[in-house]
Amino acid sequence: MEINPLISVITVVKNNTKTLEQTILSVLTQTYKNSEYIVIDGGSIDGTVDIIKKYSNKLTYWVSERDTGIFNAMNKGIDKCKGELVGIVNSDDWYEPNTVEIVVNRYIEERKKEGVYYGFVKKWKEGKEHTIGRFHHNFPNDHMIQHPTWFVSNSIYKKFGKFNDSFRTSGDFELFLRLIKNNVKFFPINAILSNFRMDGISTYGYRLVKKEFIEIKYRFGLITKKRYLMWKAHLWLKDKIL
Q: Which of 63, 70, 169, 226 is most buried, by CB atoms within 10 Å?
């Protein structure tokens, strides 16, 4: 049995020269070294590709091409992964220095059981620490565990599929519920694994997020048809007023 399992990390990015380098360095300087790093760029036209090229000799794979959205880009990255566990850290976010080591230690403690290993997320707003998210998989609601803290067994993606990229902002929520429905094991870790800037699409596209959450909850039987239709009417009316 391999003592130091290979871990895959993915970053997806598009036109983000402001914070991408911090994200890349947070992965490349991890205390755990047996890892591969994959960067998927959505066809940036600013200077993002130049930053990626600066570190290209340390990346396992990178590409810059158009995609249909963030979850489509993540799926491209997953297709390239060879590690036993797959982590995803977005270009607005960054890992703690020992994130991967913490996850691997728990993975080995659990005798490398297949599942989702996840921890806490520290949220930042306007450059200042805002809150620490401590969500649990047993409560599948709007405050789901956030995918930048997930490390998912590669075999899980092969068995149950990747992100549903028909959702623009909530493909991670749909996957989260799909894995729960299929009785995938979740392993919470009592440590901060990821840092999250509160300025991404899921923060400022609130109504779109809400619409997608309601649709996903209905598909998985978490709300009744009556409540589903009431929520749709409510959100439609809000859109008309705004």
A: 70
Are the CB atoms for 164 and 175 separated by under 8 Å?
A: yes
The CATH architecture that domain 7-202 belongs to is Alpha-Beta Complex (3.90)
Q: 22 to each of 27, 94, 187, how far by Cα in Å? A: 9, 7, 28
Helices marked H in the chain: 20-28, 48-54, 70-80, 99-109, 154-160, 171-181, 201-204, 206-219, 225-241
Distance CA 176, CA 140 (A): 8
pLDDT, tens only, 206-234: 677 778 888 998 898 888 888 888 877 87
The whole-angstrom separation of Cα 37 and Cα 62 is 9
Report residue 209 as tokens: 């997020």
Q: Identify the three-state secondary structure at position 193.
A: strand
Per-residue pLDDT of 90-118, as tens digits, reads 999 999 999 999 999 999 999 999 999 99
- According to DSSP, residue 240 is labeled H
Closest CA to 79 of 25, 171, 154, 139: 154
Backbone Cα Rg of the chain = 18
> Which pLDDT does position 200 carry in this prediction?
54
Instruction: Kindly report each contact of residues 178-186 with a partner whose C-beta sits within 8 Å and lies 24 or more positions away, as own/partner.
Output: 178/220, 179/116, 180/137, 180/140, 181/220, 184/114, 184/115, 184/116, 184/156, 184/160, 185/113, 185/114, 185/115, 185/116, 186/115, 186/116, 186/118, 186/137, 186/145
| Dist. CA 188–CA 145, nearest whole Å | 10
Q: Output the pTM of the full model.
A: 0.90
Rounded distance between C-alpha atoms, residue 61 and residue 184, angstroms = 29
